[in-house]
Structures are given as C-alpha cells and as structure tokens.
Fold:
Amino acid sequence: MDILPYGRQSIDASDLQAVTESIQSGWMTTGPKVGEFEEAFAERVGAKHAVAVCNATAALHLAMLVAGIGPGDRVVTSPNTFLASANCAAFVGATPDFCDIDPVTYNLDPAKLATDWNSDTRGVVAVDYAGQTADMVAISKIARQHGAIVIEDACHAVGGQFEHQGGHYKIGGHPWADITTFSFHPVKTMTCGEGGMFVTDNDQYAEKARRLRSHGMVRQSEDFCGLGERVNDSSDTALDEQGPWYYEMHDLGFNYRITDFQCALGLSQLSRLDSFLDRRREIVAAYNDAFASNGWIRIPGLRNERDRDLTSWHLYTVMVDFERLGVTRSSMMKSLRAKRVGTQVLYIPVYLQPWYQTTYGYRAGKCPIAEQYYRQSLSLPLFPEMSDADVRLVIESMLEVTKPK
Structure:
C-alpha cells in the first residue's frame, strides 16, 4: 500500500520544464539562475540580500562565520530542532547551548533565555518550529541588550509571516533578526531538491557569505556569480598580469555553491508558494476542527491567534498522552501505518544526543518542557498534494487509534 508520509514535495509540469530549460542552457553548476533566484527570494521576503547555498546547514555555518563567532563563545538555541541548528556553533569551535521551550508554541522561551543567560553568549539561533515564528521581538530585545547576534532558523517557515502590534512582518524581512536561514529540502514548504538561503540586510555579512560559499575567492570583475569584489592590486601579488581569469583567495572558504538547475526549480517553486501555503492552511484547519474536542489529542498552539493564517505550517504536530491512553507511541505509529498513515517524531532534544552528552556533559533534565514535549509529540501527514480523501483518512485513523481501550 502507498503510505502517506509526514511530508513530501510537490512537483508539477512547470517545475520540470524550468529544470529542463536550465539544463539545456548549458549551465550545470553556478549560472544566471542563481542570481535570479536570490533576487526573487529577497524580494519575496523583503530582505536586502539573499545568498543561495547548497543546503540550510551551510547557511547556518556561514551565519556563524560572518558573525565572527568562534572558540570561547556560546550560542544558545532550541533543543526542539534538527541537529544543524546547534551543530553550526560547534563547527566554528563555539559551545552550543540550549534553552527550554514554551509549552504552547514549542519554540524557544524568551523568559528562560533571559534567566539562563551566560556572560559568554555571543549568539542566539531562534528556530521557527513547524513554521510558527519564534517570539523574535522578545528574543532580539534580550540578545541585543547583551551585544549578541540574532539568527533566525526559518527552515520550517518559508513564506511565513507574523503579526506584531497590528502590523504583518515577513519572516526574513523583519528587523528582529540579523540573519535568517531557510531550507529547500523536499519535505519543506518549497524545494530545490536540496538547497538553502542566507538572508540579511547587512551588506558586510552578505559580501562575506558570498565569498565563503565559493572557497573564499574574489574575482577580477563582476560576473553571474555576484563575486565582484576588488582584488589585490598591489605590485607584490604572485602574478603581475591580472586578466579576466584572475582570482584571489582572501578567506578559507568552502564549496557551498548551489547549481543553476536547482535555482531554476526554486524560481518555479517560488511562483507556486502561495498555493502551497493555502493548501497547508486548509489541511491544518481541517485537522484542528476534527481534533480540538478530542480529549486525547492536543492540537498545535499559537502564541498569537492572529498568526494562524500567516504561519506556513511545515509540520502538524499533536501531543498525545500515550501513557494515560495505555499505548506506546511506537504501537500507535504501527497501527496508523497499517491504515496507510505515516507519522514522524520531530524532534529528540538535541542535547540528549550521544555526541552532545560526551562532548559537553549535557544530561536529561536540562530542558524539562522539551523533554516532556518529546515524550508526547507525533507529527501527522501535511503536504499540498494531499487530497481531501487523504485528509479524511488521517483524521479517521487518528480518532480510531486514540479511542481508550
């Protein structure tokens, strides 16, 4: 039987045509579609700069590097996230640390951030879990009082917005994050196959991110890569002749470049983003209506109810008190799978991973709310290609498996 996964990409004929045309153009690596995609994405989110990279982990790593974070620094993030949100700090020799989450939104709790602040904290990576923005206004106020940089990990939140004091703010284009990162993995709101985006209004951050994504090189003149920085024009350079081929390595960079045909797909997907968001919100509304009165299922909460139709809803995660219901999560997932409904658990608190316990000495009990969330969370299928019959199947199956024995 075909199993409904918890997430899946939506690819149509226009996407295939865009990729085909890009490949047929002759550009297979970095070409003109990269710049086009960056420009279109920056305009969509309302940011000054967008730098496309091979994946969102690379975008987070670049955020650490351009911010100058390194050994002796601490970076605080949510434990309720994928590994990369914390790993990016370890990549640069900083200490990844964790702040407990809010029990309603499952995002980083600003009150806990304030009370647990350490003097060596140089950065905060605020994760937009399931597509709902973290409380960026409160988080940025705390971080900036201490001179720390604010990075919004918006990998779940492509196309999302939030309300603040009567205004609507786009994720990636608001003033409460210094850098925002996005993911284009196939299960996310839109896809490039793989891929990520580094977004900022800071000219220096953007310039350095562009350089570091391509081996730290700068070129002689502007080209489609956007690497138009002035190179060393002093007489002591290794080669006196500096023709159009000439480049210099000014930093130790990486190969974090994205391909042209991935960006062609990204442009096509971006044109479909509103329809993706609309369908996700329709499915969430149907789930909420069906589960709200079920005493065994707790539907996702919102910090601000006015954000319900602004949230991108990458995930639909419910809380189930499996112990009180008299079943294990594994057995419920198996029962649902037998009904063609795939589910997932997102996420194991990062600090409970063996490497984090061994390297930093973290132990259970560090973030009690995140641990309680983990014990009861279950993510249900949510993606635009779901039919109404698929949605009914998920609802009926969940209501059946949560009946008390």
The longest strand covers residues 121-127.
